Each structure stands twice: as C-alpha cells, then as structure tokens.
Amino acid sequence: MTDKPIALEDRDKDGAKLFSPSAGRNKAVIAESLALRLPQAAKILEVGSGTGEHGAALGGLREDIIWQYSDPDAQSRASQQAWAQPYWPAPLTLNMCAENWWVDLPRYDALFSANMIHIAPIEAFFGLAAGAAALTDCVFLYGPFLLGEKSAPSNLDFDRSLKSRDPRWGVRELEFVKHIFAEAGFNHVESLNMPRNNLLLEVRR
Questions:
Q1: Whether the Cβ atoms of residue 53 and residue 115 lie closer than 8 Å to each other
Q2: Is this prediction's pTM over 0.90?
Q3: Residues of the chain whose pLDDT is less than 70?
C-alpha cells in the first residue's frame, strides 16, 4: 500500500511473533466490541493485519470465529501466522492499491481494518471500499477520524504528523469515509467511541 516503513512504532519480537505497542493498548477493547457484534461462526477478512494481535485477541474470546489475516509485508504475515489459531487459513498477500485485489476471494461475514486508511494513500481506502462491496455486507474500521470543527486536538496533531511524513497520508474525515462507503452501497453506519479519541466504525448495507 505504501513504500514507507510498515509501522510508525518500534516493535518487540519473540520468534516470529511481533508485538505492537498500539495493538497492545487497544486489542482487548476492540476484541470485546467485535465479539458482541459478529455472528456465530463468522468468517472475517482483516485488511492490513500488522502484527496479528487483533485477530489473536478476538480468537481468544470467540473460538468459533475464522479469521483471515492479510498484509503486503512478509514479516508481518509471518507474525500473523505465529499468532493464528491452528485452524485459521494462512495469511494472504493483499494490497489495497492493486486493481481488483478481491478477485478470486470468497465472501466474508465482515471485513475489519485497524489503523490502515490513514497510514496509506487515499487510493488504499478507495480500494478497501471497492473490495468490500464485492466481498461482504459489513465492514468494521478502527482508528482516529476527523470530525470537522469537533475534531480532537490529538487527532489534528496526528494528522499533521502523518502528512509531514507523507503528504498522501492523513487522518480521514468521518463524513468523507461514510460518503465513500455509501457510494459502495453501505448506507447504515454506527460509530462506537473508543479510548484515545478513536472510533470503531461499523458500516452495513
């Protein structure tokens, strides 16, 4: 999705497993929220799975879930495989900027992506929405969003920091995100306030 570093933070390592400080802070609350919202035996595609800790946290709460990791980075995929439940499929190499990246993939009960659309060019977000329209009726996005004049100062600061690293990056306006998903057929939106001025956004057909 970008030729920039795959993470904005230093990560610890234990064998193939990578440990993300940000995932360590948010994985439990994300897993608890998703566990309440996903149907029984749900098959979930995670886009930009990073270390793999989000899927592992949910797997610890919901053994019925089948979690499909994906990431364009080989080291991240190795970490995801190390975190995975033994009955989960191998991580996929998916790039949201690739044309028709969703071709040949099965249907999923939901797509999930954490902290991806702001640390990537806007084309990656467009690709995510287009692929979601082909693969599922439900998408969960976690991360910071801008809320116009009501934006949290910390998110505005983060937006400026991201753009200083790469002008293609940036915290996305919530209304813009909702608009793009609406154009892709996802017209029902629910947002859940999360710690540190983040949101868990659920969009459905």
A1: no
A2: yes
A3: 1-8
